[in-house]
Specification:
The complex is a heterodimer. Chain A is of the alpha/beta class. Helix content of chain A is about 25%, strand content about 25%. The two termini of chain A are about 15 Å apart.
């Protein structure tokens, strides 16, 4: 069982993610530089946060054309679990794997603070150990985190149960307070907040258990006993 | 073949809020004596220099590039293309 952590020029949460996967959850993880392909024996893929290509043009727009994204798309079609966090979410959106757009926060500020999420879909590979409507204390750290979808797409997201997380309060002006979504099949999930910064008690001042359940969900999905 | 300068303006579609434009309007321009201004919208402009046989071809080629590479996200943005002889 191996988890691929993709590294783009400007990723900066890749090592935090790798640490949580390997040191905390004892998973076998490997970094993959964006200009190469992914091997076939990967059981899940994570696109970490950061500032790929310095957010030039707009967040995620250039990394979405990296060679490795072709393999990520193939794996998405096969149903392999794929998680994008923060910039990873922006890249998945720009690559067309998830609907919508991520715009500048209404405040125009880079927002770095603790907030909380509500679980809206606990059927995905990354949320199956969480309870529906469970609260997750978690930090955000982004400038372009305001998720936007048009009304028609929003209706579709609701109908197909593609809203995975909502903020428990208005944080940045996101449509319908959406913080994370999945594709129609549910195997590709994107979220703006950072579970890798909240899964250990040493760095979570409120409660690390809910964020750790995101990783434990992945363990369950890929059949690893913890 | 001739050289053209092609200006691509990327801006939010109508109905998508533009907090930067609103801030410039409300917290800068309207705090002066410029009450005649009612709206400011921000946009990003990319200036392409391209060799093509004529103006029309230059416009078509740049539009194709913008669509193919998702230079703009059609969910929230629209583009306007202006072509000038270099």
């Amino acid at each position: 069982m191996k988890i691929g952590v993709i590294v783009f020029p400007g990723s900066n949460c890749d090592r935090d993610m790798y640490h949580v996967l390997t040191d905390v959850f004892k998973l076998d993880a490997e970094y993959f530089w964006h200009d190469k392909g992914l091997p076939k024996n990967i059981d899940a893929v994570i696109l970490p946060g950061g500032f790929s290509y310095g957010d030039r043009l707009r967040s995620g727009a250039i990394a979405a054309h990296s060679p490795i994204i072709k393999d990520v798309k193939k794996m998405a079609e096969k149903g392999i679990p794929i998680l994008g966090v923060c910039n990873g979410f922006q890249i998945l959106v720009e690559a067309g794997l998830l609907p919508g757009a991520l715009l500048k926060n209404t405040s125009l500020n880079f927002m770095c603070k603790w907030t909380s999420l509500i679980v809206e879909n606990n059927k995905t590979p990354f949320t199956n150990k969480l309870k529906l409507h469970q609260k997750i204390p978690i930090p955000i750290a982004n400038g372009e985190g305001r998720y936007y979808v048009d009304d028609e797409t929003l209706k579709k997201l609701k109908k197909k149960n593609q809203i995975v997380f909502r903020y428990s309060e208005v944080v940045n002006g996101s449509s319908d307070r959406i913080a994370g979504v999945c594709n129609e099949d549910g195997n590709v999930v994107g979220m703006m907040p950072h579970p890798e910064r909240a899964a250990e008690s040493e760095i979570n001042p409120i409660d690390n258990k809910p964020s750790s359940l995101i990783f434990e969900s992945l363990l369950t999905t890929i059949g690893v006993k913890n | 073949m001739a050289t053209f300068n092609v200006h691509v303006t990327i801006e939010n579609k109508p109905g998508i809020s533009d907090p930067e434009g609103e801030t410039i309007l409300n917290d800068l321009v309207l705090k002066g004596t410029h009450s005649a201004i009612s709206k400011i919208k921000t946009a990003k402009m990319l200036k392409f220099t391209i060799k093509e046989k004529d103006k029309k071809s230059a416009q078509t080629r740049v539009q194709e590039i913008c669509d193919e590479l998702r230079i703009y996200n059609p969910m929230v943005s629209k583009i306007t293309i202006d072509v000038f002889a270099a």
